[in-house]
Amino acid sequence: MEELKEELKGKIIEVLNLEDVAVADIDDSDALFGDGLGLDSIDALELIVLLDKEYGIKLSDPKQGKSIFESVNTMAEYIAKNRTK
User: Fold this and answer.
1) Cα end-to-end span (Å), the chain
2) Domain interval for residue 70
3) pLDDT of the chain along its 85 residues, tens only?
4) Which residues contact 47 (CB under 8 A, 6 or more apart)?
């Protein structure tokens, strides 16, 4: 699971072009939106595409994203249970 979390942080930084953020800067339990990493709704769409391309996970209900994208921990748990790639 730790390996997945590290991989996920790297992919988030890469996909969202977070130039001033390093993998070590993101805590597993930090909020991704709002006060944490400060992502916005456009970033959420990018994360949905990331899940589909990298892990074969299609979110049919965008409202699911709110709980899935809470933190790196919640994303990693969801990916571990639902990945097809």
Assistant:
1) 15
2) 2-82
3) 999 999 999 999 999 999 999 999 999 999 999 888 999 999 999 999 999 999 999 998 878 888 999 999 999 999 999 999 9
4) 12, 15, 16, 32, 39, 65, 69, 75
Q: 57: which 2 tokens?
A: 């996970």
Phi, psi of 39 (to 5 degrees): -70, 160
What is the CATH classification number for the domain harbouring 64? 1.10.1200.10
Split into its structural domains, the chain has a count of: 1
Burial 44-75 (b: 16+ CB within 10 A, else e): beebbebbeeebebebeeeeebeebbbbbebb
**Do residues 51 and 15 lie in contact, with contact meaning Cβ atoms separated by under 8 Å?**
no
The amino acid sitting at 16 is L
The number of CA neighbours under 13 Å toward the Cβ of 37 is: 30
